[in-house]
Amino acid sequence: MAELMSMATMLLFLLLITQFSITTAQRNDSLISLGSSLSPGTNKSYWLSNSGQFAFGFYQQGDGFAVGIWFEKMEEKTVVWTAKRDDPPLPQDTTLLLSGDGRLFLQDEQGRQEHISNASQLAASASMLDSGNFVLYNSNSTIIWQSFDSPTDTLLPGQRLVPQEGRNRLISSVSETNHSSGRFQLVMQSDGNLVQYPVLSIGLLPSHHYWNTETYKAGDNVTLNLDPNGWLYLLNSTGSNIKNISDAGRSHLGKNVLYRMIIDVNGLLRLYSHSMVQNDDWVVEWVSTNNLCDPTGLCGLNSYCDLNGQGPYCVCLPGFDFVDQDQKGLGCERNSSTYGCGTKNDERVTFEELTGIAWEENSYSVVSLDNKNACLEECSRDCNCEIALFQNQQCSKKKIPLQFGKTTQGIVLITTIIKVHSGEVGARKGRNEHGRTGILISGIAISTFGLIALVVSGILVCRFRMWEYKRIGNHGSNKFLEDVTLRPYAYAELEKATNGFTDQRLERVIADGEREFRNEMKVIGKTHHKNLVKLLGYCHEGTSRLLVYEYMTNGSLADFLFRSETKPTWEERNGIVLNIAKGILYLHEECETQIIHCDIKPENILMDEQNCAKIADFGLAKLLMPDQSRTYTGFRGTRGYVAPEWHRNMPITVQADVYSFGIVLLEIVCCRRSVEMDVPEDKVILANWVYDCFLDGELDKLVEDEDAEKIEVEKMMKLGLWCIQEEPSVRPSMKKVCLMMEGTIEVPPPPNPTSSVSIVQIE
Ligand SMILES: *[C@@H]1O[C@H](CO)[C@@H](O)[C@H](O)[C@H]1NC(C)=O
Ligand SMILES: *[C@@H]1O[C@H](CO)[C@@H](O)[C@H](O)[C@H]1NC(C)=O
Ligand SMILES: *[C@@H]1O[C@H](CO)[C@@H](O)[C@H](O)[C@H]1NC(C)=O
Ligand SMILES: *[C@@H]1O[C@H](CO)[C@@H](O)[C@H](O)[C@H]1NC(C)=O
Ligand SMILES: *[C@@H]1O[C@H](CO)[C@@H](O)[C@H](O)[C@H]1NC(C)=O
Ligand SMILES: *[C@@H]1O[C@H](CO)[C@@H](O)[C@H](O)[C@H]1NC(C)=O
Ligand SMILES: *[C@@H]1O[C@H](CO)[C@@H](O)[C@H](O)[C@H]1NC(C)=O
Ligand SMILES: *[C@@H]1O[C@H](CO)[C@@H](O)[C@H](O)[C@H]1NC(C)=O
Ligand SMILES: *[C@@H]1O[C@H](CO)[C@@H](O)[C@H](O)[C@H]1NC(C)=O
Known about the structure:
- The protein is of the alpha+beta class.
- It contains twelve helices and 44 strands.
- Residues 61-62, 89, 174, 178, 180 line the site of one 2-acetamido-2-deoxy-beta-D-glucopyranose.
């Protein structure tokens, strides 16, 4: 049935395409004849398309005019194209001419001309088509120039981006009202990948990308297409659809719907629809990311993007002030010029810290150090060091300026240490009030809850990781205490117990909103299973929101598997897999509120004294209401472990956890990371290698010289391959996984899971 439906959709789509080209071929349009002209401010300032939907001509820009194309029938005239967008506004006395000899140009009062089109032939007529394409025809009615071939920030149905200079990118606008080239671009690359980058004046690197379709192997001549039903997809050079980027529009079904895709001022791709019947505003059908801080370089030098509250906001580093208070995107500079190597005035130097902010990788020196304080010492001894990042026992020293700062959504704790020169701290007083006080006690980072954004269903508690508690009002505190039957801790008590929160295994977490904090506490507080890390208590004092978890002596599974000197035995590994499976089964099926963990990976599994594995970090977890089995949500989780449906804007079900579990299972069984770079090419991606070995009947090769029974090894590998199937419904439930592991059910031979398992080349 579903297949029939999509067949029908495809057919409809083909029909529409065909119809579209016929329309063009028959030139069902109002022709503009040679000798016509337009001028702003008169009653002949634009030409309309046949249906009156689109207009080509002069529109107001700043205190002058620009030439462009816009939706004319709407109350809010939406501009979709601008000629010579980076030229200054045109004065009132400008004329646009389609001259008698077939050229299209602007002429000012002094008679100076500037060409709009660079067609190689002379035109015989022009037309504003109903598709939004302004075209010039020669005497044989062949299109010799069209606005669709020089896109600005918008793609209209029927228009495509092709990997050819001039036609391969959209560049965002400066602002909603200024259509000059802005700061972000979408590029249809010749390697087949569609990628978003910042527009930088110098030195664009692949690592600056912030979104891509991961089609870098699709070869030459891949094109981005938008069809009249709002489908956004990539075609390869032979015309096969290789990637659906957005579904057909959902908000407005039926006919008389207009679509446009735009790279917006802040760098996100958005597909909009507009119903001509209801004649309402544009509705967002699809957006490339829900994290508004994703676009690289949204904030300027020495500042970082923060989602706190209604974000995104640009925040200056401590000791820095905005270059321009009114334009916070322009970055920050030191609030003091008296510093630097060589200036030997005995200024006082202090250090400030930020957590959870990622920066461009441009360190001049990286040192392995045990802890943050050693990193701070290292930086203080080095007069070139102005900023140091501490992460994963690595201390990276940097000079300013820093760029591309944004709050991270990953679990790895990054500390930014900033050298602050005397007299600067005072200027940043406001920062601490912002409340970087949330701290997590126990084994590992957990939880935090973001603002409720883009949630389809109103009953969902939707959260995503953020690193700052917002200041929370007093209301509701007492109620909160009644709701939770956990031990309350005093802030001072925790501070003492953790040595002033200096312990490496603490993580600061920050959240937004009392309600989410309470919900998390209630739900996680009620879970009770031997394979879940136990929540013992909380601290709810002033602006502090801390969660206290049981202490897990043996660290994380990642340490246990990949970093310890002796490999755990086959037996132990088997036990760990079963523990994890049972923990997830409990979350999925056995507790009161069904929970999708969303971030199963070795870093989030902790080992107790007896090496029993327990799942931790519910920071990303989603809670489902009893009658709900799926949810739409913004991206969460960790690359490498997340199920393919996260990338596809598909509903997320418990099967997403099954996928992550499958990846972790293969890692545990093979005692290696799912992606390793320093191995032969065919072994880089563990899942692919395992499937190759499975096809060759050589699964035992994966667990060299170990006293594991071949048949046991095969069972685990096959189970892992089942769990990582691209199609969520093909993956077994956790219940079934447990039964298979225990031998109650046979594990049948798995199909090929791998078409979606790949890494992003350009990282
Ligand atoms: C041409 O446009 C008119 C008005 O929009 C429409 O009624 C007519 O069906 C169109 N003809 C063709 C062949 O598309
Ligand atoms: C402008 O429109 C008005 C009224 O529609 C008409 O009287 C006038 O002649 C027009 N002017 C030109 C230059 O076409
Ligand atoms: C639009 O922005 C550009 C770049 O910031 C600027 O140079 C130009 O003056 C602006 N145009 C208007 C009409 O404000
Ligand atoms: C017109 O401009 C486009 C984009 O700048 C370029 O690719 C094309 O070759 C030009 N055509 C002519 C005839 O100069
Ligand atoms: C129009 O078509 C004729 C015949 O195909 C050809 O000889 C002529 O050069 C074409 N004219 C233009 C302007 O392309
Ligand atoms: C790429 O595709 C365009 C349009 O489909 C076609 O005209 C062109 O010849 C193709 N180029 C290559 C190198 O395949
Ligand atoms: C285009 O995609 C189809 C389907 O994935 C594939 O069979 C074909 O080989 C691809 N063409 C090229 C040139 O890569
Ligand atoms: C894109 O979606 C259509 C319609 O659902 C489907 O038939 C097609 O297989 C999809 N293509 C890819 C590459 O997923
Ligand atoms: C730096 O901050 C201090 C304290 O707010 C202020 O008095 C001083 O003017 C600032 N210096 C500069 C150069 O902006």
